[in-house]
Amino acid sequence: MMKLLLCKPQDSFVEPCCYQYVPERFKGKRAVFSNDIWSAYVHLKKTRGAEQVSIREVDFSSLSPNQIEDMVRGITHLVLFAPLTPVKRLEEIIRFVRVVKQKGIRVIGVLRTTCFHQELIERYPYFDALVASLHTIESLEYYFEKEATVADPLVIENRDIEFPKVFQADASFLEAKEEISLYDYRSRPKWRKQRAISAGTGCPHGCSYCVFQATRPVDKNPEQLVRELAFWEGEVELFHANVFRRRDWLEEVLRRMRKEETRLDIRTLGRIDDMHENMDLFPLCREAGITRIAVGFESADARILRSMRKSQNDLRQLDDIYHEARRNDIFLELNILIGMPEDNEESLQKTLDVMEKYQATFSVSLLRPLPGTTVYKEVLDARLATPEELSLDPFLQGIDMFVDHHPHVPTKHLSKNEMAKWHKRFTDLRDTYEGTVLMRILRKGKRLLERFPFGERVLSRVRTWRVRLAEK
Questions:
Q1: Which of 299, 346, 427, 450 has the most crowded CB, counting CB atoms within 10 A?
Q2: Which residue, among 270, 269, 336, has the nearest Cα to 299 in the 3D structure?
Q3: What is the distance between the alpha carbons of residues 57 and 34, in angstroms, rounded to a whole number?
């Protein structure tokens, strides 16, 4: 009889994101909550029987052979939710998988990303299957259906499965409250990504640098999503490629959240064009607890935006969004991406000028061409890098640094050293804004500090930044 163990590194989440692990300096000793593994656990308990499925958060760095023996005793299948992690952590995971495989246990790895899976399965022939699709539950069922007839390791991609009409339907993690309570998920997090809540997955757009380009979007049922959010208090990361994509869905979610009177500080994501079309929902967003919205601004140069396939980004719309968000005490995080093959001094200066206009914190990412993306092929065709330079090892080394300051490729016009200098200009500007933004939160976000228990932490952080800015 099949007996399943689901586990993941306790410092990681599985929702699609550039960085899927939370360093100890942010999380302390607490485990990181990931919606995906708990929803899969609930589904498998229903379909395979409660006694046949177990779940565990694992610190792979401290596992002894005896502990591994105890953990997998009686198990026939290990479902390992193992997002791409730093080199040292991956080595620890592979040592664990090797031992498990020697015991005749089938191993299914869940990546939920569409890059590097082929390289992983060739390098580490311990996996019977790797899930590289956006839908874990459907991918696991696909594997169980095929495993008896498949001899070679199976890579399950989006094209192999039938996408559900509703995301994680009838598989709410709330049905596993008793097991969830065994982990310290609910204490106050130092970083909101310790609580990764999925609102949906997939994106219909074709951004040239994104591994999830042109995948059919699927949303979670609003009633289920709001019940799941109401389980928490304080800071939460609401994962969705673009919550403003469907107005009717978002409006229902927001109205239900307001009715629930959730005590939340939510960060989520939106696209400029859809946000502009639905700016009238900003007051409702704020009432529902959405305090931060990350926006993929990327570049101020029209030529670069076209190369990214994001030409719909409009500076006039961004200006409208920025001011409307400020009026509603919503903080915009403007994310930019530099180092595209066509980037030059002019395009980067344009972007820097726009960032100087909007005093908001923003992430400054350096292009990392990932296998399967359009820009990956463009970089190779232009001979800006070799496949070896864009392989798994350099990628994991970049994750090791967490805050990535080292250009991975030159552009057609700028060397790596020149791109490093530009990146420093952007990050230096961001650091000067950080203190200003926090002061604005204090001036205009008094209600936030009164409503939530982390006001003193915000005040402490502002004091720290004021000292640092004074020293500069």
A1: 299
A2: 336
A3: 10
Give the pairing type, strands 106-110 and 33-34.
unpaired
Instruction: Give the model's pLDDT for residue 452.
Output: 55
Query: Residue 179: CB partners within 8 Å, gap ≥ 6?
Result: 41, 55
List 5's β-bridge partners, or say none: 54, 78
The total of other beta-carbon atoms located within 10 Å of residue 301's CB is 21
User: In the numeric block, which tokens belong to residue 107?
Assistant: 């191993």
pLDDT score of 184: 80
Q: What percent of the chain has pLDDT over 70?
A: 85
Per-residue pLDDT tens digits for 213-266: 778 999 999 999 999 999 988 888 899 999 999 999 999 999 999 988 878 889
Under 8 Å between Cβ of 53 and 41: yes
CA-to-CA distance for 359 and 72, rounded, in angstroms?
52
Distance of alpha carbon 419 from alpha carbon 447, whole angstroms: 41
- What token pair was written down for 249? 């869905």
Residue type, 249: W
Helices (H), 302-363: 302-308, 315-327, 345-357
Q: What's the pTM?
A: 0.88
CB 232 within 8 A of CB 194: no
- Which domains, from first to last, does the chain contain? 4-160 (3.40.50.280), 199-471 (3.80.30.20)
